[in-house]
Amino acid sequence: MLSHNYIISVPLRFLLFSFVCFRIAGVKILGNDATFVYGENATLLCQLTETDDSLTRIIWKKKTLENPEEEIFFVIRQGGKTEDPSGLGHRIQFIGNFAEKNGSIELLRISLLDEGIYTCTFNLISSGPFDTDIKATVFARPAVNVKGEGPVAGSFEVALASCLASNARPAAEVMWRLGDLENSLKTETNRTVNPNGTVTVGSYLLGLPLKHFNKLIIQCVVKHNTLREDLILNYTINIHYPPESVVITPDSPTNVKEFHCIVHSNPEPTEYIWTRDSTLYYEGNKLPVPKLNPNFNGLYICNASNQYGSSLGSLYVNVHTESSTICWGLFGFVSCFAFLAIVAGVIFKFKQEWIQVSQRSRDEGAQRNSTLSTIKPRFLTTCNSGHPCKMHPKSPHRGSEGQTRQDCHDDQDESEMESCQRH
Fold it and tell me: What is the predicted pLDDT for the residue at 377?
C-alpha cells in the first residue's frame, strides 16, 4: 500500500514541477527606466503579463538619494486597496488595475531626493514573487535670467551683461549671439554646484561701455535636456551716460500748444528747468504755451540733468501776429506814398523853374540873334584871348570909315584891352 502510493506520487510531483516551470518561463513584467522633471508628476509603469496565476498583492520598494536603504513604501491588495508604510500616501496615487495585474503608480511633485531605484514586486498564489527594477532619474529645468550691469560710458573694460542658468540638473549650456558685436565683446563662463546637487552656470559679457552700444540687441541661448528646443532670450544693452544733444521742438508746426525738451541720455533726465531771458520760468520736459503771441517772444533755455550730468538747449521765439503784420504793411504803404508825393512835388517845382529859365534863355537868344542880324559880320571883332569884346550898348560910335567902335572896359584883361585899343 505504501509502495503503491509512493509510486503514484512520483509522476504527480514531476507533472506539477513541469507546469510551474513552464508558467514561470512565460511571465513578463512591463516596466522601463524613466527620466522626470523636478516638480512634475512622475509615472512609474509596472505590469505583469503572460500568466493566469492569481495575484495576491503588489509591493513597491525604493532606494533613493533621500534614503539609500531599501524600504517598502507602498502596497496594493485585492480590490485596489492600498497601504502606506512610509507615510508618503499624500504623494502617491495608484493608477493601475489590480485585476489586470497592472501596478502602475504616480508620484506627485517629484523631488531631486526621489531619484533612485524603484522595485515593483508581484506576489502570486502558485508562483512568484516576480519583480523588476525601475531607475528614476530626476532632472531640474534651469531658471534662466539675463540682466545688465548698467555701466557708465567710459574707456575701461567692464561686465555689460550676464546670463544665468540657475539650479539646473545636469548643468545647462549657456552661450551668446552677438551679431555685429562678435569682435567687440568677449565672454567668460563659470559653474557653481549647489548643495542640492544642481548646477548654476553664469556667462558674462565683457567689453568697453561705449555709448553707441546702448540699445543694441543681443541674445542669450540656453541648451538643456529638459528643453525641447533652445531657450533664446533677447537683451538690450544698457549703457548709462549724461544728457547730450538737447533739442527744443514744438508739438505742432501750425498750432503750437507746448514745446518739448527732447534729450539724448540714459537714463532719462530726472529734472528739466526752463529759463526765459536768464530768468527761471518753468519746470518739466514740456513747456505749455497758453497763447502764442508777441508777449511770448524771448530766448528759452531747457536745462536737463540726470545723476551723471546735465546739458542744455535753447530756442529763440519771435512771434508776429497777423494784425501787426497788416499794420506794418499799411504803415509801409502810407510811408511809400508820402515819399513818392514829396519826390513828385520837388520834381514838379524844379521842372517849372527849369522851363522858365529855358524859355527866358530862348527869348534872349532870339533877341540877340535879331540884333546881330542887323550888323554885318565884318563889324564883329574878338579879343586876342578868344573872348568877344564887350560892346557898350548905349555908345555905338562910328568912325569916319563907317566902322562901329567898340568900348574897352576895365574888367577886360590887358591883352583884351590892347586889342580893343588897336581897333
Answer: 37
pLDDT digits (tens, 9 = 90+) for 204-245: 999 999 999 999 999 999 999 999 999 999 999 999 999 988
In which band, very low, low, confident or very high, does the pLDDT at 345 lie, cut at 50, 70 and 90? low
| Cell of residue 38, nine digits | 523636478
Give Cβ neighbours of residue 13 (< 8 Å, ≥ 6 apart). none
CA distance linking residue 45 with residue 265, whole number of Å: 61
Q: CA 40 to CA 106: how far, in whole Å?
A: 10
Q: Give residue-wise pLDDT tens across range 78-132.
A: 998 999 998 888 999 999 999 999 999 999 999 999 999 999 999 999 887 999 9
Measure the CA–CA gap between 152 and 308, rounded to whole angstroms.
Answer: 9
With a CB cutoff of 8 Å and minimum separation 6, the contacts of 24 are: 127
How far, CA to CA in Å, does 155 sit from each of 36, 208, 210, 237, 267? 48, 6, 8, 16, 19
Dihedral of CA 16/21/27/29: which sign?
positive
What is the β-pairing status of strands 116-124 and 130-139? antiparallel
Q: Which residue has the higher pLDDT, 342 or 378?
A: 342
Query: Is there a contact between 305 and 271 (Cβ–Cβ < 8 Å)?
Result: yes
Residue among 169, 176, 181 at smallest CA distance from 230 = 176
Name the helix (H) or strand (E) containing 15: helix 2-25
| Type of residue numbered 271 | E
Which of 73, 56, 77 has the alpha carbon at shortest distance from 129? 56
* C-alpha grid cell, residue 198: 544642481
User: What are the C-alpha distances in Å from 228 to residues 136, 245, 307?
Assistant: 20, 47, 45
Strand partners for 175: 221
Q: Is the dihedral of CA 275, 281, 283, 288 positive or negative?
A: negative
Polymer length of the chain? 423
DSSP output for 63-130: EESS--S-EEEEEEEGGG-EE-TTS-GGGEEE-SBTTTTB--EEESS--GGG-EEEEEEEEESSS--E
51 vs 28: CA distance, rounded Å? 8
Residue with C-alpha cell 514838379?
348
Which are the contacts of 301, defined by CB distance < 8 A and separation ≥ 6? Answer: 274, 275, 276, 312, 313, 314, 315
